[in-house]
Amino acid sequence: MIDLSQLLQPDRGQAARAIHVVHPDRWSDWLNAQPQRTRTAIGANKVTGKAGNRAILPGDAPDDWSMLLVCDEAESSPFRIASLGEQLPAGTYRLVEGEPGAAMLGWVLAQYRFDRYRKDEKAPGPRVLLTGEPGRIPETIALAEATFQVRDLVNTPASDMGPAQLEDAAATLAKAHGATLTVTRGDALEQGYPMIHAVGMAAARGREPRLIELEWGDPEHPRVALVGKGVCFDTGGLDIKPSAGMRLMKKDMGGAAHALALAGVIMAQRLPVRLHLLIPAVENAVAGNAFRPGDVLKTRIGLTVENTNTDAEGRLILGDALAKAVEGKPGLILDFATLTGAARVALGPELPALFANDDALAAQLLDAGTAQKDPLWQLPLWDGYDEMLKSDIADMVNAPDGPFAGPITAALFLRRFVPKDVPWAHFDLFAWRPTSRPGRPKGGDTMSLRAVWAMLKARYPG
Predict the structure, then answer these.
(1) Domain containing residue 85: CATH number
(2) What amino acid positions are annotated as catalytic residues?
(3) Where is the Cytosol aminopeptidase domain (predicted)?
């Protein structure tokens, strides 16, 4: 992978090609201020000042040129110049009008390539952007590295991304930051985390279920728990998915990828918290010992769950992980999961559903999402639907009959494992982009990570 730290450099007056980013509202004034040679080149390129117009502008020497982009995105948008970070040739660049600011992130993200299985393709050289705000570089690089990690983890097929590989990723993170790693497997998992064990017990040898935990930070600091759904492949279990529904199920560990990556940002930026990362890692496989529809499952907190759908397995493993997180008496719990297709039907692929048991926390997250151009949409923890989780033979079911309120009933199931006095937010996200946009290629991607990081920074100032 390219060294991201070299893509953003302090501007010390070094040689660089110029980039002009002009808003359509300022187009006429900007154009009138240009020399005739520039206006002639702009006319020859049929640039009219509409958003998206671009042109190569000639300089004084034959090999001297600059780039023009007409852009109507706000200066606060991370993706204002992402298309240039993706398409320009290798070299060093400087914005002529103002500082790149938030757009530094999109510049770096645009240079992502997933080439693990395409070694024959030569990667382009780095495109370096200069900035007069060097203090913004470390955080920007940390967020970019987190995004690249999520993309790599989600894009990797299940043959090379199982529970063991998620454990390896957590171990690498722990080693890099001096954190403590604990992994629970086998009999200890079956006894202490029965739902995680039940979901993953049909997986092949080497892909056994486990609970991965990482702890970092000063024990005197506020305790924050991050929980990520780590279903490394989801067949649907005995309630097996059709082939079309199984096609993208390598991404069902996208919640775990988000939690891992966010933990990396928290530790790299030395946020003053006591971090507790929990990843229940499983493969929902089909075998003779797979858990069955109608089975009654035990849970870590003693409740029983009638399994009405083996394809509603994510909430099961999260339930046990949330129960463990609560035992540490955290001041905040955040969980990330590619949990329900119904959330995608309601909100589409780019807009994560947010649930929270604390109105102030929800407001902080929504405001941060708006500010960071990383939007969230809150759905209600509607008490009236709690009765849909009733079971005739157990304390609750994992999935109600019928098509109604799928994301809400899933969140209500998770709420059973979190005390009312513990602030908690649940993110039901897609972790995948079905189409490419500048800085956001088709494939695995972060959704809500920047918003959550901004909220955490504000909540726990250094």
Answers:
(1) 3.40.220.10
(2) 241, 315
(3) 309-316
